Amino acid sequence: MESKQSISPLSPLRQSSGQAFNVRDSLAVIRHSQANVMFENSPVNTHTGQPALDHIRTALGLNLHAITANKGALVHGYRELSALAKSKGKTFGFEATVLSGSPLFSVFRETFPLAELISFKGILNATTNTILSRMENGESYEEAVKYCQSVGLAETDPTNDVDGWDAATKVAALITVLMDIPFTPQQVEPTGIRGITPEMIAKAKAEGKRYKLVCSVEKSGKQ
């Protein structure tokens, strides 16, 4: 079980020689794993991409394929990690970082290899979408958040979702990978949903409108 960057094993791990070693941190586990593939799923750090960035960098450096659902590592290390994977003849897989299992990155790159993405617009965060939909059906903001937490859509602290940072990180990932422009979440100007009240929801519904957290990007000039 991981606590910060250290791991407390239930039993000692062994090297190829059979000799046991003490696990001090997550990087030690990777170095001594004797694995062929590493699946990286540590908590997202939108500011630095760590510790996922070091996990993936270490795995690829040891000739392991590296698969991750961590958006932080993707936006902060895409070019470096992609180049490292290519030099090692290994896979750096990150399809699950945006829209979970939907093959967004691979479909665009493999189906439209000569296309240039100049804009995109859509809903990228399921948690806020569910909260707003449930508020339309009469629940309070707090009740809707609690429901999302109960089904695993929202964390105990839903800040990243409701304040727009999860969506901002996904926007940065799409810009970085599909537009080939290095971009971080801090360059996005997110707008969350905390200020949306049941009264606002009801008024919009009466007018045939709906509140949604929509992400929109348009490329201008050379960038």
Describe the structure.
By secondary structure, the chain is of the alpha/beta class. The protein has two domains: 2-97, Rossmann fold; 119-218, Dihydrodipicolinate Reductase, domain 2. Helices cover 40% and strands 12% of the residues. The longest helix has 18 residues, at 71-88. Mean pLDDT is 89; it is low at 1-10.
Main sheet, how many strands, which sense, barrel?
3 strands, parallel
Mean pLDDT: 89
CATH superfamily of the largest domain: Dihydrodipicolinate Reductase, domain 2
Q: Shape from CA axes?
A: globular
Task: Tell me the strand order in the biggest sheet.
Answer: 5-6-7
Q: End-to-end span in angstroms?
A: 42 Å
Give helix and strand order, one letter per element, not per position: EEEEHEHEHEHEHHHHHE
What is the third-level CATH name, the topology of the largest domain?
Answer: Dihydrodipicolinate Reductase, domain 2
Number of strands: 9
Gyration radius over CA = 20 Å
CATH architectural arrangement of the largest domain? 2-Layer Sandwich
Oligomer: single chain
Strand content: 5-15%
Number of domains: 2
Given the helix and strand composition, which structural class is it? alpha/beta
| Unreliable segments of 5+ consecutive residues | 1-10
Q: What is the CATH level 1 assignment of the largest domain? A: Alpha Beta
Number of helices: 9
Could you estimate the helical fraction of the residues in percent? Answer: 40-55%
